[in-house]
Design goal:
The structure holds 2 protein chains of 2 kinds. Chain A starts with a helix and ends with a helix. Chain A has a two-stranded antiparallel ribbon with strand order 1-4. Chain A has a two-stranded antiparallel ribbon with strand order 2-3. Chain A is mainly alpha-helical. The relative contact order of chain A is 0.12. Chain A is globular, with a radius of gyration of 23 Å. Chain A is built from 15 helices and 4 strands. Chain A has one domain. Chain B is α+β, with helices and mostly antiparallel strands. Chain B has a domain of about 100 residues: Alpha-Beta Plaits (2-Layer Sandwich), CATH 3.30.70.3270. Chain B is built from 4 helices and 5 strands. In chain B, a hairpin with a 5-residue loop joins strand 2 and strand 3. The longest helix of chain B is centred in the N-terminal third of the chain and has 16 residues. Chain B is elongated and about 85 Å long. The relative contact order of chain B is 0.18. Classes of the chains: A mainly alpha, B alpha+beta. At the A-B interface, helix 1, helix 14 and helix 15 of A face helix 1 of B.
Chain lengths: ~400, ~170
């Protein structure tokens, strides 16, 4: 190995350690945050006994879960039952590897570490574990792998509730995967690239994509909720009808793994929303953050964390506000509303981008983004107006009226 | 629909998700900054003189741990008439009467099994001497089961407030 390759390896290892430590500790703290947010929204205080303001509560929970008894249902398929938590846990963590979390850091070193030899690195290092050129395609591919864990958990438990939960999870995640993928195509049209790094660069040159591609953002957010099985779409675990859904039969640390996976998925979806629609680590109204430097990296990292935290809070906020959908409503929303909406939006955006860039000949990314933003205001008003008047999601009385009118 | 789903006829304006969602989110957000109602239990209590946050306390009619009242000389007021074990529906009172040289009756043994007690308050109601009472008190956890049989000495040494029985002529307790 050349010293340059070893330098790259060393840097990547450090980045990996940092990212996974932050993700795992963050996920543990998210369980606390969820309980705190839910408590505050219900005029309660939330956990505040273990450590200062309850900060050690996740540690106490973890310890409890490790010490608890592992149970195996007598007729469960033992190996799949064991494999399922890992299968939902690994893809959730894998995804954090491809999200850029700060501005590139200029690193230069030339050191000799005893028997390991010489390590050399110079130039800007992208602050992402793996700067994949296939960007969000990778995320879409891996995030849909998570459903295997849930479906297997449901099937291998040999319990009717778990099985129903697993079935619902697979149906729901496949349905919303479609809308999610389609909602990202306008981003592709705007950025001309799927790599996160270039999407962020495009947004810095133009506008944050939430403005010119508002409807994409809206559909992506809703599908994201469904993909991570969060309320109002937590059909797979719907405790009022399925006890705990796919993890009914799980106990102790195996159960914990499903929870870690769920929160890791929430973090990933929020990081995706931030990266694709809110400029990633971009600090708005300044180009100072792209000039490169240690301070810039630290500050952009903080900005990224702040944006992701806001979206995580938003996810919790929605969870403690909305009741759960009925299953047929969930499917209808996915297939009959979000998918046609996303398809129509692709058409509109494609035509608009063609008109703006080819016919009108606008080459400045900011001006073309602004033009699209104007179009999106109109579309948003139209779509929300139609949604609000019940044109997309009909009250179930419509069905009854039609049935009685048709005889 | 194949299964019987109850269909409500609502105007479509009312089944819109958009405005309802925004309204709900505004409400939950507002609640985050409101005063918390949690009582920090072991530090703040709903019984006793300095009860929780000055906001609320358990009712004066709460029937909890028993208490035997004593006279000025510190002797129990009980005359061992036997009415309370007679009326007790859970049969949790054990009373062995005794008599001193002046012919005063007093309880030799008076025990209440708090585990068997259903806290109906009949013993207080039936007592002619107003000796046995149920109390405004609920914290009676112990490390062993036999500690739940309260003897006369323990019943007399309780200091919590006694409950006010419901009076039919004053139903609101005013």
């Amino acid at each position: 190995m050349t010293p340059e390759m070893k330098g790259f390896l060393l840097l990547s290892t450090i980045k990996m350690l940092v990212v996974f430590t932050v993700i795992l500790v963050g996920v543990a703290l998210l369980t606390l945050m969820e309980r705190k947010v839910s408590a505050w929204m219900q005029n309660r205080r939330g956990p505040n006994r273990v450590g200062w303001a309850g900060l050690l509560q996740p540690a106490a929970d973890g310890l409890k879960n490790i010490l608890k008894e592992e149970t195996f249902p007598a007729l469960a398929n033992r190996w799949l039952f064991l494999l399922a938590p890992a299968l939902s846990f690994i893809p959730a963590l894998l995804l954090s590897a491809v999200i850029p979390f700060a501005a590139p850091l200029p690193v230069e070193f030339d050191v000799t570490l005893g028997p390991l030899g010489r390590f050399v690195h110079q130039g800007a290092t992208p602050m992402v574990v793996a700067d994949l050129p296939i960007g969000f395609l990778f995320v879409l591919a891996i995030s849909s792998l998570g459903v295997y864990g849930i479906a297997l958990a449901g099937w291998s438990s040999n319990s009717k509730y778990a099985l129903l939960g697993g079935l619902r999870a697979s149906a729901q995640m496949i349905s919303y995967e479609v809308a999610m993928g389609l909602s990202l195509i306008p981003v592709l049209l705007m950025a001309g690239n799927v790599s996160f790094t270039s999407i962020i660069a495009q947004q810095q040159a133009g506008l944050w994509y939430v403005l010119p591609l508002f409807l994409s953002f809206f559909i992506f957010l809703i599908s994201g909720f469904a993909e991570t099985n969060r309320l109002p779409f937590d059909m797979p675990e719907a405790e009022s009808e399925l006890i705990a859904g796919y993890h009914t039969e799980y106990s102790a640390m195996k159960f914990s793994f499903f929870f870690i996976a769920e929160y890791a998925n929430v973090v990933t979806v929020c990081a995706m929303v931030t990266t694709i629609f809110f400029g990633g680590w971009d600090i708005p109204f300044t180009s100072w953050d792209q000039s490169g430097g240690v301070l810039q990296t630290l500050l952009t990292g903080l900005f990224f964390a702040g944006k992701v935290l806001f979206w995580i809070f938003f996810v919790m906020w929605i969870r403690w506000t909305l009741p759960r959908f009925r299953y047929d409503q969930l499917m209808a929303l996915g297939w009959k509303v979000l998918m046609p909406l996303a398809l129509a939006y692709i058409m509109v955006t494609a035509v608009a981008i063609y008109l703006i860039e080819q016919v009108a000949g606008v080459t400045d990314p900011r001006r073309s983004a602004l033009a699209l933003f104007g179009l999106n205001v109109v579309i948003a008003v139209l779509v929300f107006g139609l949604l609000d008047s019940g044109a997309f999601i009909r009250g179930s009385n419509r069905r009854q009226q039609r049935a009685t009118a048709g005889g | 629909m194949a299964i019987g789903v109850k269909i409500l006829t609502r105007p479509e304006r009312e089944v819109s998700y958009v405005r309802a969602t925004l309204k709900g989110m505004a409400l939950t957000f507002k609640h985050m900054f409101e005063k918390k109602v949690t009582m920090q239990y072991p530090e703040e209590k709903s019984t006793g003189p300095e009860h929780g946050m000055g906001q609320w306390r358990i009712s004066n009619r709460w029937r909890g741990t028993h208490r035997m009242l004593t006279d000025e000389q510190g002797r129990s007021k009980c005359v061992a008439c036997g009415l309370c074990p007679q009326v007790c529906p859970a049969n949790c009172i054990k009373l062995v009467p005794g008599e001193d040289e002046q012919g005063h009756r007093y309880p030799l043994i008076y025990e209440i099994d708090e585990f068997r007690c259903v806290f109906c308050g009949y013993c207080q109601e039936v007592c002619p001497e107003e000796a046995i009472h149920v109390g405004v008190h609920f914290e009676n956890s112990e490390y062993s089961r036999d500690r739940f049989v309260y003897d006369l000495e323990r019943l007399s040494s309780q200091t919590h407030a006694v409950s006010t029985l419901w009076d039919p002529t004053d139903p609101q307790g005013e």
